[in-house]
Amino acid sequence: MTQLSEEAEVTAALLIIGNEILSGRTKDANLPFLAEKLNGIGVRLREARVVPDIEAEIIDAVNALRARYTYVFTTGGIGPTHDDITSECVAKAFGVALERNPEAVGRLQAHYQTTEINEARLRMANIPAGGILIDNPVSKAPGFQIGNVFVMAGVPMIMQGMLESLLPRLRGGAPMLARTVSCDLAEGTLAEGLGATQGRYPEIEIGSYPYLRNKKYGVSLVLRGTEEARLDEATQAVARLVRDLGGEPSITIGYA
Amino acid sequence: MTQLSEEAEVTAALLIIGNEILSGRTKDANLPFLAEKLNGIGVRLREARVVPDIEAEIIDAVNALRARYTYVFTTGGIGPTHDDITSECVAKAFGVALERNPEAVGRLQAHYQTTEINEARLRMANIPAGGILIDNPVSKAPGFQIGNVFVMAGVPMIMQGMLESLLPRLRGGAPMLARTVSCDLAEGTLAEGLGATQGRYPEIEIGSYPYLRNKKYGVSLVLRGTEEARLDEATQAVARLVRDLGGEPSITIGYA
């Protein structure tokens, strides 16, 4: 376990909404994308949850997470069909009305031909009272922010566009930097020395991830921290440990 | 939203443990695998959470989930390194001691050469008191079951081996069956009729998932349920709806 300084840490949680994730039908691709963007602006993704399209589950999760983290991001459930219930659940979580937002209606009207506008599509303009729209550069129907909760689409390309457009609203901290030391030693061989190294660098998070690639076992030792000099010092210490144990360390800036 | 009959439903949650998922470094592959296996034996995956390698977070999540679902599966954090703290956290969640398990020690001794056995590797034989081992056909260090919680490795190949070996212990229900109706209509065109169809088949869960493939938009309408005749009837109703709206439905058994 790593003890990081918690002072002034800006944190976030992701709430993934949708039966299709829990059925195994759809593999979530939004968590890694969000995580990387948040690393870059110094916001730490601290938890993720996946819940089904059930009102009480969504409301409970939104309220649990928004009380606990600086920011909450949700993905999924803001389309025009009957199983898209995220917006009304978020309104209920905040105890506000769900209102037809004129600006959102305008964006839909500009995008669709008059004959295509129907009640189902207009549902996508229903936004909790007080919500601030999030631009959707792909298919126009906006997401929204209410309080510290950012509601986005589930389709990765749309989610990515929405996230890019809302990033400037976020207050971040020092970006999280990463280094990876890879080698073909076994985790069990490295464990004692690695634990000692972690003890000497408490502000650096050191993780050990074994892998099997091209039928060869190896381990990626990932170091993360916000102070580059200290991170590089710890990385060199880990590389030395690998060499001392007869391995050949390969260092990558970032993840590997 | 879909109202499914909750009577005698066997439910499960997945707890994914590890900083590497929340940093975006590692993409989880265990959720879809678990979901598919559980669908097959009639256990419904109802929630997933991802938590970091922090003791209090793991303990809280284990206790919240085990109180709520028939089964809880955890992945990650049972290796030999300092960041592997799942077993001690699960012991604390259950309020029992973490003990060196003789059977687990025996399996490690049979697997490793005498010179390779060290304290770090023996940590992998520390199992909460009362835990029942889960076989690891890949790298021998076992997982374990305590109460309704099943603790597995995070490396997908090992997790998959462990899951196969524990499946016979689970009590399931009627397998969840799926059908997919794909077409190139827009969701907003389908929404009204789809909602009406969902209303007529309340025991079938109907989800609508738009996609962009080869630069063409389309939508997959996924139907899930446990009664095959009724599922096929609902599938035909959805296919008819697509045809009535000028689309060409393509039906797949399972997900598409």
UniProtKB/TrEMBL annotation, chains A, B:
Superkingdom of the source species: Bacteria
Family matches, as CDD domains: cinA (cd00885)
Segments forming domain MoaB/Mog: 13-174
SUPFAM superfamilies: Molybdenum cofactor biosynthesis proteins (SSF53218)
SMART domains xrefs: MoCF_biosynth
Protein name stated in the entry: Molybdenum cofactor biosynthesis protein
